[in-house]
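Let's inspect a concrete specimen:
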Amino acid sequence: MQISVNQKFENVAVVVRAISKKVDQNNKGYYHLQVGIGLKSYDAKIWSDDEKINNEIIPGCIAYISGIARDFKGTTQLHINTIERIFNPSQDLINSILPTGFANENDMVNEINRLIDTIQNPYIKSLLQNIFEHQEVKKHFYKKAAGAEIHHAYIGGLAQHTIEVAKIVKGYCEIFSYIKYDVAMASALLHDIGKIFELSSFPENKYTTRGRMLGHITLGYEFVSKLISEIKDFPTDIKLDIQHCILSHHGMLEMASPVVPMTIEAIAVHNADKASSEINGFNLAIQRDTGTDLWTEYSPAYKRYIKK
């Protein structure tokens, strides 16, 4: 569902992504919200300081809203007259309003398995099979996002991003025959595995305490290292290669990588990760935008406007 300027809406279900209480120039209280319907994200205002709103409406909750949409500096802003939290939403209602990706979960499971089957090294293949059969991975990997806000920030986003990175790396290996395929492919499949611990489940999709304090790179490194240790005689050189790719996949120290890429496989994984995240980030900015012209709002993440 998309809400247009001057459209009245009644009892529309939304996810409250953010809410804060503010004071206007006349010292009157009001609420500023970000609400989501699918991939769309709307700026919203409630011109009231009702304390019940402050107590009941929290980030991650689902609510019915009624009001009218207005144009505000070229974007669609929702002026909410009433908001009512839904305390026990049905699964069908949740599914209808949460942001979802562009791939079916079963298709992504099958694609991950196909990519694992391309691995020749028995140690690496065993590691990947053990990880993707792990209880925590099966429970969360295909349902969580790859990011809280910027890229692949929707249900299934983590798996979709991982498959994109793996396919890009596969393409690199076809062009650059000297890339060690098994190491690069395994690292592509595992580079963001720590995000199953870093981000909470939907509808919240926020950083967990562990995620904030340690980050997905550290969490992923520790998780993969633990499962490597459970495979007898796992080769030390391969272990170091995969660990290095995970630790360096953000590419730069200032981008939270503990080390920079120092192997061909690591630089391949980094560039594949960058391509997937930035291309999807542009597309997500376009999908979310509620503006009325040909350009998105200014993106602080990418420091530019993006043509729709």
Observations:
- The mean pLDDT is 95.
- Strands lie at 8-23, 29-37, 40-46, 62-72, 75-85.
- DSSP finds eleven helices and five strands in the chain.
